[in-house]
Specification:
By secondary structure, the chain is α+β, with helices and mostly antiparallel strands. It is about 25% helix and about 30% strand. It has ten helices and 28 strands. It has helices spanning about 85-115, 205-210, 265-275, 290-295, 300-305, 325-340, 355-360, 370-385, 430-445, 520-535; strands at about 5, 15-20, 30, 35-40, 45-50, 55-60, 65-70, 70-75, 125-130, 140-145, 150-155, 160-165, 170, 175-180, 190, 195-200, 250, 260, 345-350, 390-395, 400, 405-410, 410-415, 415-420, 420, 460-465, 480-495, 500-515. The chain has a six-stranded mixed sheet with strand order 19-28-27-26-22-25. A four-stranded antiparallel sheet has the order 1-8-6-3, with no helix packed on it. α8 (about 370-385) packs across α9 (about 430-445) and α8 (about 370-385) packs across α10. The chain is globular and about 90 Å long. Mean pLDDT is about 80; it is low at about 100-115, about 215-250, about 250-255 and about 300-310.
Amino acid sequence: MAEIINMPRLSDTMEEGTVASWLKKVGDKVEEGDILAEIETDKATMEFESFHEGTLLHIGVKEGETTKVDELLAIIGKEGEDISSILSGATTESKNEDKEDVALSAVEESSKSDDESSVEIPEGVTVVTMPRLSDTMEEGTVATWLKKVGDTVEEGDILAEIETDKATMEFESFQSGTLLYVGLNEGESAKVDALLAIIGPKGTDVANIAKNFKVAGSSPAKQVETPKRAETPKVEALKQEPKKEQATVEIIGKATGGRLFISPLAKKLAEEKGINLSQVKGSGENGRIIKRDIENFTPSSSAAASVGKFVPSGQEDFDEVANSNMRKAIAKNLAKSKFTAPHYYLNVEFDMDNAIAFREQYNTLPDTKISFNDMIVKACALALKQHPQVNSQWFDDKMRMNNHVHIGVAVAVPDGLVVPVVKFANEQSLPQLNAAVKDFAGRARNKKLTLDEMEGSTFTVSNLGMFGIESFTSIINQPNSAILSVGAIVQKPVVKNGQVVPGNTMKLCLACDHRTVDGATGAQFLQTLKGYIENPVTMLV
């Protein structure tokens, strides 16, 4: 009987593979263990060996062609065996896929010609859609509803807390009325402009609106059914991916071996409070743990004492956490920057003796306290005014030379990283910079920053010196042209005036986009920066 060979998954992240070369051709004898082909994955080009014996009867993917994991790659069987039924089955599936695409396209085209809603909306009823709360937001997650169906809503009331790709933000109502319908449960996600809620006069029947509402270019909610595809005959059954609840974290219980379902916000709060999730009873749908369950949780002393004693020695265990919108945005934006901007790196080491003495003396002033980071931000701002090329931004059709200096200061938060922006940093004093950065950092960790405070940077400073990191490189925050990585101040022997003496140095790395900043330009900027850092009194002149 013929054996169907599908495109194998040769790495944990592989979604498709390319046949680099076939080591066998149709008609060749194949022994178990023979190398059939070289497959190019997302990580490497790897040899793919056969687990079957017979004759290579069919090749489904030619050299240089790409196909998805588990798609038909080859067929091995007895010499002369009829495989037409197998191939016709694959053809039927392909045709069904085409029909599916046509059907979906027809729905999309018809929806484009319709009005914003597929049904007439009664007077006084307002359909509230998922708002775009940041410039990069593509979808949002309802962290918490502050109103429930049946509640009276006044204009300006907070309807819900929405988790975006940058922060969890309060979403207020611009209408008054009664909350008649909620389109998303806590912890669920939806695209921007998808149905979020319906507000209107009390008692209004909105079931038909909720069922048929659609936005421009989309289909009515929950009305398009994907046609079933004909299955291609396979000898080896494909693994079925388990269905996952949308925007719900599924955790393998360490103590009981059961599963817990929890919203991303509740998971984060539990981690911050050190709460053992196996002790928390969920009040959400299907027992899902939500924010209020964590906030109202009171640990049991007996339960706390018993935690962990049922865990077998050597048991493999892991937690699966759904990627937050912030983490998705970080991954998307940094990957785009790393793989589109030609990065290069300039490394320097500055003498910090004068900077240390300057800071100590400056901080003796009444009600004054500045950090080394404040001094670096100020020095960068002054140096950027002298080197506008480093303060530039790259766009596909132009390069923008900024005359203002807005410095982004990277701040670590529990969900990832945010970059609040110090506007007109060159015009601010060291104490003003200190107050601004402290305020930004505190509100960033509490997710209280506004979108305006995180946009518009022309240069970025990332400082890991306070964590003891001596040197590192950073990825440019596009469309900016450069980012400065700042390490720790290290005490070590240095040579001064021909003699080895104790000294203090700090390593910095400037990552530059070669499209806008040439090597000599970056080096000149660092020389100017060195003058300010090693002689900080010049920043006050």
